[in-house]
Automatic annotation (TrEMBL):
InterPro entries: PigL_N. It comes from the Eukaryota. Pfam families: PigL_N. This is Azaphilone pigments biosynthesis cluster protein L N-terminal domain-containing protein. Residues 2-210, 241-307 form the Azaphilone pigments biosynthesis cluster protein L N-terminal domain.
Length: 429
């Protein structure tokens, strides 16, 4: 018998578990004939979730170096939620006679106290988080377009707003459960009220840290690297920027340390609240529901953290924009980045004999291409080797070219009075 899936399971196993669970639930929903609007929406969400999970599975198999460990808890919760909701449907169907053709009790389905719409939105949160993690991996590999980056930012904003609403709902349910547990005795009521106040204060502190961290990321100035700035005429200005940035980095480090301490404190408070509530609510059903709420609370907060880090990564992305550029008749143009930045080129025109290169290129590649094209341009346009051709004054073609530039072979009707000269002194570009 295989070991049960848990957070200690490997990432591949968790992705497979979530994918199989979502597919199982999709097939269960699809097997019923009666599909109200909210059930059809759930079915579509499950189909979209399966697509994202499949993409994650393929990415994990292709790129062993990409770290998706932060997705382990969302994947576990996603798989468990789908399995548990599938059980809810089965139990409700049995109470209704077990018929899949006349099942009408969709409105009675409840999971963690909510109906189908809330469950669908919870799945959408998992899907968005996984999509953002995949896009963030592509962003780090510079394989995203400028348009894709803007769409990615919007996706992060929408996912963050939805996750915040979801977390607020989970918080309210937890608070209600804690208050219900506090009714058991005056001592429990006092202790739970004190822990709830401390929990709210800690969450407020974390929110302040997050806001300040986001602001610092936005105002942090760009400082050229030492090699580039060494010969800069504005070196004093660059040094000032570096000092400013170092100070902001210190502030960011301090905020991160503070946030980590608050996170540990919040986890300690939550553990004590959960233990107190489980003791005061001995019902196995209440305990199981409280455990789901705790896991979903941790998952929602983790998903929000992933969105926050992904949003910070977008602020570090620099796009090289080339637009409305008109090239000459004979020109070698590069619209490229040697530092991994995104290249956005639009409305670029070029002469008939021009050549363009674009995208991500190493500096060595650009230099080599330039040398290759330079040599190709300087090949004499005749079938005679440069060493055996005279320009008419005893100067070889290669010597002429080095002095006056590339020339063009003239036809008989274009020849100058000195017809023995095979090249004209017109310099190429």
């Amino acid at each position: 018998m295989a070991d049960p899936i848990s957070l200690s399971s490997g990432l591949v196993a968790l992705v497979t578990f979530a994918l199989k669970s979502s597919t199982l639930l999709y097939n269960t929903v699809q097997s019923y004939r009666s599909h109200p609007k909210n059930v059809r929406d759930l079915r579509e969400e499950l189909e979209a979730l399966a697509g994202v999970l499949q993409a994650l599975s393929e990415t994990v198999e292709r790129n062993n170096d990409t770290d998706f460990a932060a997705l382990k808890l969302p994947l576990l919760r996603c798989g468990n939620a789908c399995r548990e909701f599938d059980d809810v449907i089965a139990k409700c169907s049995l109470r209704s006679g077990g018929s899949k053709t006349s099942f009408r009790d969709w409105a009675k389905l409840k999971y963690m106290g909510d109906g189908i719409d809330e469950f669908r939105r919870m799945l959408a949160g998992y899907k968005s988080t996984i999509s953002i993690a995949l896009a963030d991996a592509n962003l780090r590999q510079s394989s995203v377009t400028a348009e894709g980056l803007e769409a990615y930012k919007v996706m992060i904003q929408d996912a963050t707003a939805d996750l915040q609403d979801h977390l607020k709902g989970i918080d309210e349910k937890l608070e209600s459960t804690f208050l219900r547990a506090a009714d058991e005795s005056d001592e429990d009521r006092i202790q739970i009220r004190q822990m709830q106040e401390e929990r709210s204060s800690t969450q407020q502190g974390l929110a302040i840290c997050a806001q300040l961290s986001t602001y610092i990321s936005r105002v942090q100035p760009f400082v050229a690297d030492d090699q580039h700035s060494a010969d800069s005429p504005t070196r004093s200005h660059v040094v000032a920027e570096r000092i400013t940035r170092e100070g902001l980095v210190e502030c960011q480090d301090t905020l991160n340390n503070t946030a980590n301490r608050l996170e540990k404190h919040l986890k300690s408070i939550m553990d004590r609240l959960m233990a107190k509530a489980k003791t005061a609510l001995p019902s196995s059903q209440d305990t199981a529901e409280l455990k789901r709420l705790e896991e979903e609370w941790e998952t929602a907060r983790l998903c929000l953290d992933l969105c926050s880090k992904a949003n910070e990564n977008t602020t570090r992305v620099t796009i090289n924009v080339f637009e409305d550029v008109k090239g000459a008749e004979e020109v070698l143009q590069f619209f490229a980045s040697t530092t991994g930045r995104i290249v956005h080129a639009k409305k670029i025109s070029l002469g008939a004999r021009g050549v363009q290169f674009g995208g991500q290129l190493s500096d060595a590649s650009i230099q080599q291409i330039s040398r290759d094209f330079s040599r190709a341009e300087h090949v004499a346009p005749t079938d005679t080797t440069p060493e055996n051709v005279s320009s008419g004054d005893g100067v070889g073609v290669s010597t002429f070219r080095n002095r006056y530039g590339l020339g063009f072979k003239l036809g008989l009707h274009e020849a100058q009075p000195d017809a023995s000269s095979p090249t004209a002194g017109q310099q190429g570009h």
